[in-house]
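Follow-up to my earlier ticket, as requested here are the two runs.
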Amino acid sequence: MHMLGHQVNIAFAAPPPTVVGWRCLRCGHRGGVAKTTLPLDCRGSEDLWAMMLAQLRKKLVRVHQRSQGCIAIPDDFVIHDYIP
């Protein structure tokens, strides 16, 4: 059976998005919120968790600069559990 042109949707298993809070040590901005798949509650491998946290901080650099005009570096961000 030849199925040329047939589209198949494949969903990959991924953790559900988690909302985390963050703040910037460089400018003092508080109350930032980000939706991420960073598993803050189940760290498993510390190396993997550290890599994911570094990626989140890199993304926050661009987002924070665009929205607040702050020239922060990844180490300026403190990530914490979000409590509404």
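Run two:
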Amino acid sequence: MVDTPYKEIIDYLKDAQLDLENAEDSIKDMIKKIDAYLDENLNEEQFNEREFLKSRLEYIEEIVEEIEDIIIDLQS
């Protein structure tokens, strides 16, 4: 059984993880929209925005993985 302080931390981390996963989904949707636009209109500004979003997405994915690792460690 997990100690109460750890349980609260784990619950907080799970909420944060869910929020970040929702952010990932939103960013993926934006990237898809930009990709659809770029297929029709090659635009450097949109291309740069897509690349920025992709880098942010990778960063968020790394944070989610770190949170998952912390949760596993706290549960052990």
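The only thing I checked on run two: Residues 13 and 67 are 7 Å apart (CA to CA). Let me know what else you need.
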